[in-house]
Amino acid sequence: MAKEEVYDRWHKTRPGKGEPECREHPGLVSSVDHGCEKRWQARWRDKSGRQRSKNFLKNKKTAAIAFQRSQRAAVEEGRDPLPHRSQRTASVPTIAEYVETFLEEHDARDGTVATYGYRLRGHVVPALGDQPIIEPRRPEYKRFFADLKAGGMQDPHRTQVKKALSAMLSAALDDPDFGHLMPGNQVIGIKLPQGRRQKARLTWAHIVALAEEISPTFEMLIWYGALQGLRSMEATGVRTTDMKCRLKKLEVEEQRQDGRAAPLKTEHSYAVMPIGSFLVDRYLSHMSRRTAPPSTDVLRHRRQRGWRPRPEEYDVLVTLGRFGTPVREDALCRAFNLAKEAACAKGVVIPKSATFRDLRDFMDAVLIASGVPPRSVQVRMRHGTLAETLDTYGFALEVDWENAPASFDELYGIPAPPGLPEAALVSQTERIRRDTREVETGRLPQGGSGTARAEVRRVVEP
Fold first, then answer.
1. pTM here?
2. Residue 51 bridge partners (DSSP)
3. Considering only CA atoms, which of 214, 221, 460 is closest in space to residue 320?
4. CA 303, 308, 313, 315 torsion: positive or negative?
5. Across residues 223-252, what is the average pLDDT?
6. Helices (H), 291-427
7. Which of 70, 82, 98, 407 suits 290 as a labelling partner, its CA being 20 to 30 A distant?
């Protein structure tokens, strides 16, 4: 019986004429794989005649020979040449099936689970969902991420999909039924360009235009983002009891996820922050409109549409949707995009990539550019570290204070830092008086950005 041998990946079995010998192994010719970690390759053919192989470490030649012998013997005897594959039973789920199990059992915030679900169901399941979870290997996952890029997905989004997929595979490894059949988390080690979200650098002209053009129902959300740095769902979760108007304080205690109260993102997100008189005025004006009895036309319109009466359980929220329910993320996104289009139509060109999140970045940049101490900015932005304040969010900005709706202290509720330009110290009353005079003289046209600042609103504190 011939001696069992395995394939040596380091050296060529049929070297070309005149090829130089290997320096480490005289008499042999080096291959392109010379020096790789897995030198020995066991080879056999399965029942269908298909060539199969498995590589072994450079010091595991004996194990490679034994494995090759066992596989060839199994084929000759009519058995499955890969015993570990015969253990695949109905208990091994497909990727699509395990995605639902993972999302149901994942111990994380509701927002995180929802985000993972969006990425796994929307991208992983359509591409890999029909395969058993123990089947795909690293090359297949690499092709999956390459296909996402070819389809137009940006690098930051691909990185987030990889994060969700990696979390799911790590959880699968701990499953007692099939985790031992998996070759490890095949996504770990795949390098993707990190990329960064393209930030839109907004100005006061953009902020004022957005507040003017967005639906009056959502106007307070713009100011919560630009003046208090609230995230979108934190802004929709502000309650009337959180607005301490006489104390000029705002408590941030919860957010809204799918209409339900939910914990904030991190422990640093909980805070009591100062608010300026400008935000107090906007809030009182907003509440006077929201609590006013609906007109006869509005009531008739609701009856014709068959709308249900507004639920009283949500009256505690400052901002409500059209049906009197909490504002959803998609509704705010649509309203924000419509406001951008309306502002652009009136001459205020807002970057197309601008999102509600950029309001928070704008506030961080304004505070840093105005000379507020970095530690104070960190507290105001509710960041866990100073590096997050300076590196992740802060960017150089030349603030157009002449377009601001009020002075620095009226906007942010803190004393103006020294060195600010004179335009940053003009009060809201003076700006309204000045803009009204310019409208009357024709220097500031009616309509477009500036109209809201030219209107003198009478605010009655309840």
1. 0.66
2. 45
3. 221
4. negative
5. 94
6. 296-305, 329-345, 357-369, 374-381, 386-387, 408-412
7. 407
